[in-house]
Amino acid sequence: MNGRRQFMAILRKDLIRELRTREMIISMILFVLLAMVIFHYAFSVKENADLTYFTGGMLWVTFIFAMLLGLNRSFAQEKDERCLDGLLLCPVDRVTIFLAKTAGNLIFLLIIQVVAVPVFTLFFVSRSYVSDLPQFVVVLLLADLGICALGTLLATISMNTRSRDLLLPIIFLPLIVPVLIAATGATTLIFAEGAGFGSLLSRVLFLLGFDAVFLVAAYGTYDFAIGE
Amino acid sequence: MSDSPDRQDGATQLEIEVEGLRKTFGRREVLKGLSFGLERGGFLSIFGPNGAGKTTTLRVLATLLTAGAGKVNVAGHDVREDPMPVRSAIGLISHTPMLYPDLTAEENLRFYADMYGIEDRGARISDLLDRLELSHRRHDVVRTYSKGMKQRLAIARAILHRPRVLLLDEPHSGLDPRAVDILDGLLMEIRDEHTFVMVTHNISKGLEWGTDLMIIEDGRIVYEHAAGVDPESFSAVYREHVHDGSVL
Question: ipTM score of the complex?
Fold first, then answer.
């Protein structure tokens, strides 16, 4: 019961802070929109070329790099005025901190996607995928959970290092490649061919497995990760 | 302190017990086997030069650092084996306020109240803000506060959950004289309710408040004494052990 109250307190605090400053959201949205413009020109090799098959890749690469920006910010605020010490002084299970931070990052990523996906669709996807939306939402949520769980764990580890801005991408990007491959494959199938759940099953199961592995890893290691 | 007759008899319960505390950062050993104790309601003033290990000791007591070796008990619980009850029993006031600058005073205190599971949250927060004369600014974000106001709010944060032990890490650092007076008044107001450990460079303040005195140098206790030492002789002892020209 107390864990739930603490989870909600941390999440509420992060949301209030972000709604007030908009530091993370604004920089992430700007990054996503700029990336889209850059992709638009970079892939304009031929007039009226169908870029549907590239959209999944563009989308997930953009989300992963946008999330890197957000992850750095989400822990930088805890270091301000040594707020992290205040948090660690509280009688709270460290896993609760991890879950609340992951949930906060997930909400921010979803907000970015609500803006970015329609814009990317408008610019790059040539067919309507409204009937395949449930499959897309499932892939999106599973991939997002993996990105946020892994990202939160690694951002915590890198937070106490001197070169955290450099270290986080170096350890995050290689480990997130499996999610990128599965999510890109599934998204491309949905956008280009309208794949059903049956043809996405292996990728969906892979994303589920990835999420489970890193949630369990965080459960076992977060006390150490957030400590000294 | 550790040699007190009370402790040997077991008649007085020790609120803080430290035995053989060691701590290493990389290859550097910063705490080299500290042992001391503090009775409930006591006030331990810890002095020493920069880098002596004072703050590291305090952070181990606060469960923010893990001891490399040795036994540390706070409020009857081992800080390494059983940290949750220790965290419920302590409050830490540092020279940095540990408050979220983009939240209001009330939001900050509400956040910490939820983290400590305080039931009478609203009443407790209002009471503390009144006592600390911050009620009129309760809806302002902390970023707009002066250093002294932040420090007063930091006291509210630290005592919000009614801790048994208050740890003070150079609480006067960076405050102007008026803010120091306000802070001192508040600390004296709650003096009887808590056991205190204060790390400080301010010898006169440490002597005035301390029931127990300690000097740490290079990770070792080089002097410990019950209160009642006159400032001049303590200064002489301090200079004998510490060579960084700290102030009286």
Answer: 0.89
